[in-house]
Design goal:
heterodimer; B: two-stranded antiparallel ribbon; 4 strands; 74% helix; 2% strand
Chain lengths: 340, 323
């Protein structure tokens, strides 16, 4: 990361080496704070919550937080990939709702269709997003904004303008949403598996390297032989698939495809990813950070619920303030890193 | 006029010329086509009351989109405009006891403060505009709900109601205000040093900095102007509905405003602002919705059509070479 040290004949090699070591050390510490800052704050917040709310400690409450965080976590996972390539996906909130409606509708055909149909529909919209962004040089912001509108329109068309709510009639699907294994809800297990896969994909595969490379510098990546366009298409497909899966989980949990939720979900996901230390400029970010970001927002919400008669509007204020503090701190850390 | 132009060979349909022409004037052509269609096939389209309804509905979007266009001209974006509208709306009933002027002034002050926060985060801290304004998008509406206690409050004040539903020379006040703001912003962009600097920043910020332009100050001012315009829209929304509802005012307007700007031919990459194009973009989207409603098409269809229009507009106007 440090590129400031140039071989200068006036400076002895030993001094350069010492400088380099010191710079490297600071770099590592700053990098660690930037990457794991959200995790540190999460631990602090959880400790505070545990100390101040007796109910927070309970196993049930932890389960509640995790189950509630499952759909946003999936959406944020897809968003992490997209943002690391330097893009953005505004359509996920709509795809989440669409996925839920489609899943509830398809649940009458069985457990498998309840999962596969929303994946197919939302994945397909992801394909369209990806192709348009990768091959026409249109801004991801605009393409996915159009997809936001389009997916919402499709959802309304399927639900008779929002007036029909499809109930989940399939018992197996229903019990997936409400049941638990070892005291932890099935949705949480699914999310754990998907995140593990995501981590392996991002840090251990060629696709993962390509994602970082595209976000770092598209031109350089393409010179290195990275299939820039194909990588871009895939991250939007993943984002769409994960939003659809999140919708399906929510439908299983609620027992119906709810048509009114999901506005602003894309921005919550972006907030979680950013709090987790992923830079919106692309090229850097971790999935562990995103988990911390999602849980942090979830815990804040849970704490506000614990306080009781505090209106939910305070949650928005706190989340907003929190986001501002975190991103400002992050920016200074990055600047600090460049200077040293 | 020039001889070169006269002697140059003119193919029947020069694709390059169409390509250069379409992004600039396509939105006007689309409006003309839609208006023509409506005049011919939609009963009661060409009535004064219908035109008035359409213009009153589009006025707040135009006002917010003007500010958005300026921000986008600097290669920025402002997601917080809807929250600013909610804040402005929440403050009106709170200060109406001290008079209309005081109430409106407080709303505008809120706009200035939000703009200062956004602008400082973007210009001085160096945050990406989308992140900087995301914080107030999330927190601003919450703050508005805290201020208003989450309650819908009726606002019955003669002067405010006149602003919202009064007429001057037979034209709604809202339309006068929006038109005036359009003229002011167009003038600022085209004829003032501030306008030139704003465009220069969007075009090439490092070069502008080297040229001695106070880039940070100009950027902060742009975000303040955008927020103030949004708070004006918030005040007018309260005036029109005669009630203040912080949870509903300005909801998702950032998307409508960005759409209007982009459909109007302003590139997201900055350096260019089409003020009249922005107005046209807002009018076009309004016309689409109105046309579909008149023909009994469902909102779902309207949304899908809007999505397609956005894509076409941006595809036509997209940058031909990579940045």
């Amino acid at each position: 990361m440090t590129q400031g040290i140039v071989s200068d004949p006036e400076v002895p090699a030993a001094v350069v080496a010492a400088d380099e070591r010191r710079a490297e050390r600071t770099d590592r510490i700053v990098g660690l704070v930037q990457r794991q800052g959200a995790l540190a704050v999460l631990i602090v917040v959880v400790l505070i919550a545990t100390a101040s709310f007796p109910n927070f400690r309970s196993f049930d409450n932890a389960g509640t937080i995790l189950v509630a965080a499952a759909p946003p976590a999936l959406i944020a996972l897809g968003m992490t990939f997209v943002i690391i390539t330097g893009g953005i996906d505004l359509s996920v909130g709509s795809l989440y709702v669409l996925g839920g409606v489609v899943s509830a509708y398809a649940s009458k055909w069985g457990l498998l269709p309840a999962f596969l149909v929303p994946l197919a529909v939302c994945g397909l919209i992801g394909v369209v997003n990806g192709l348009l962004i990768a091959y026409t040089r249109m801004a991801p912001f605009i393409v996915t904004l159009a997809a936001l509108l389009g997916a919402r329109g499709l959802m309304r068309a399927l639900s008779d303008e929002g007036s029909t709510t499809y109930l989940v009639t399939n018992d197996a699907f229903r019990s997936f949403g409400t049941g638990s294994f070892l005291g932890i809800g099935y949705p949480v297990w699914l999310v754990v598996v998907v995140f593990a896969l995501g981590m392996v994909l991002l840090s251990r595969t060629r696709f993962g390297h390509a994602v970082y490379a595209v976000g770092g510098s598209e031109d350089a990546a393409s010179l290195m032989g990275v299939a820039v366009r194909r990588t871009k298409v895939w991250v939007y497909v993943m984002s769409g698939l994960l939003a659809g899966l999140a919708g399906a989980i929510n439908a299983a949990k609620l027992g119906s495809g709810v048509t009114v939720l999901g506005t602003g979900m894309e921005l919550d996901a972006i907030a979680a990813v950013v709090i987790g230390g992923t830079l919106l400029t692309g090229g850097a970010g971790t999935i562990a950070g995103t988990i911390a970001g999602v849980l942090l927002l979830g815990v804040i919400q849970n704490m506000i619920n614990q306080v009781g008669n505090v209106p939910s509007s305070y949650q928005q204020v706190i989340s907003g303030a929190f986001l501002a503090v975190v991103v400002v701190a992050q920016t200074y850390l990055v600047k600090f890193r460049r200077v040293t | 006029m020039t001889t070169e132009a006269a002697t140059a060979p003119r193919p029947a349909l020069d694709l390059a010329r169409v390509r250069a022409w379409l992004p600039k004037y396509g939105v006007y052509v689309a409006i003309l086509v839609l208006v023509g269609y409506n005049v011919l096939f939609t009963p009661n389209f060409l009535t004064l009351s219908n035109l008035r309804i359409q213009l009153v509905q589009v006025a707040p979007i135009v006002i917010v989109a003007l500010g958005m266009a300026l921000v986008i001209g600097t290669e920025g974006i402002d997601l917080s405009v809807g929250s600013v509208m909610a804040l402005a709306a929440a403050l009106i009933p709170l200060y109406l006891g001290y008079g209309v002027v005081a109430a409106i002034l407080m709303s505008l002050v809120a706009g200035v403060l939000v703009g200062l926060v956004n602008g400082t985060l973007v210009a001085r801290v160096g945050l990406q505009p989308i992140v900087a304004t995301l914080a107030l998008f999330v927190g601003g509406r919450g703050l508005a709900l805290v201020i208003s206690n989450g309650q819908l409050k009726d606002v019955r004040n003669e002067d405010l109601i006149f602003l919202g539903s009064g007429n001057l020379f037979g034209i709604p006040m809202l339309v006068w205000i929006a038109a005036l703001l359009v003229l002011v912003v167009a003038f600022v962009v085209r004829r003032t040093v501030f306008g030139r600097r704003l465009l220069a920043i969007g075009g090439n910020r490092p070069a502008t900095e080297l040229a001695g332009v106070p880039v940070k100050r100009v950027l902060i001012t742009v975000y303040v102007v955008c927020s103030v315009l949004a708070s004006i829209a918030g005040v007018l929304a309260v005036a029109r509905i005669q009630s203040s509802d912080a949870s509903a005012v300005g909801l998702l307007i950032e998307l409508s405003a960005i759409t209007a700007v982009v459909v109007g031919g302003t590139p997201l990459t900055g350096g260019k602002v089409r003020v009249l194009g922005t107005v046209a973009g807002a009018l076009l989207m309004q016309l689409v919705v109105a046309t579909m409603i008149k023909h009994n098409l469902q909102p779902s269809t309207t949304e899908m059509v809007q999505a397609v229009i956005i894509l076409i507009a941006v595809y036509v106007a997209r940058e031909r070479k990579s940045r």
